[in-house]
């Protein structure tokens, strides 16, 4: 039984209750619970009537400042595609693949152009099925 009491006392946060439990040396686990609860109640009750220092409560969620978010939203650039094309300038969008206006190269259906200075190399000695590795 003494090991359970020792584990309970050593598992408590360092503070007045733990100090009080080590001085009292309870013999059973139930006695340790009773002493800890009594000390917790007496400490919290004395803090409630102490007007010199404020009570420490659990942190509560703070409300968001929605006005700041709404004013920030008013300063942002528009993100819709129809509004973006009008703010980019007077030049129309032009495909880099085929050169036609109105769409991007990512959606172009034209075959990709061959580079003028690219050379192709056919390696005849490479095995076809990988057995010669």
UniProtKB/TrEMBL annotation:
Domain of life from the UniProt record: Eukaryota
Ranges annotated as biased composition (Polar residues): 79-89
SUPFAM superfamilies reported in the protein's UniProt record: Retrovirus zinc finger-like domains
Segments of skewed composition (Low complexity): 115-133
Region (Disordered): 47-94, 112-133
Any one Gene Ontology molecular-function term assigned to this protein's record: nucleic acid binding
Name of the protein described by the UniProt record: Unnamed protein product
Species in which this protein is naturally found: Phytophthora fragariaefolia
